[in-house]
Amino acid sequence: MQSVDERTARELRGLARVLVRSGYADHATITAALTEAVQEDAPSMDAAALVPLLIGEAVMDLSAESAEWPAETDPDRLDAVLSELEKRGLVVVRYTSDHHAARQALEAASDPKGLVFFTDTDVWHAVDFSMLELKLWHPDTANVAPGEPLLEDVLALLDEHDLPATFDEGRIEVTLDWKRRLTL
Question: What is the dihedral of CA 184, 41, 36, 51, to 10 degrees?
């Protein structure tokens, strides 16, 4: 990393960090994203040599930190909420690239009660800022509105699982400490 400026090195390490800590991206996806970032931001660097180092550093940091985590973390409780929503007939899309992919999953479902989803960048934000944005739609893709039973049910379920959440400007903001166990 000595051949790149400090800012680029920090950004590449930061990308590796959020990709690994997301807990959703597999090794191939992380490698592809980091390779693309190195090729764009540090073209003088050998991506094939640098990417494994970036991933290794992020994995080591997370492994060391996770040894101190409680048995059940906020993402574990979020997973329980999402599983319960699926049981209730909602389509749940985790770590999607965008709302178009989420909508496709909703449209492919038979008799959905609604859709809850979050994107990869929502997770990256949660890793760094302890807030995850959940989007909640009706079966016709309309956003929920304050006071609607679907929204109230989701907020109550989050509260039951000790995940503080508020509805703001068309999204549910869930306060959580993103401590997702390593799956690489």
Answer: -40
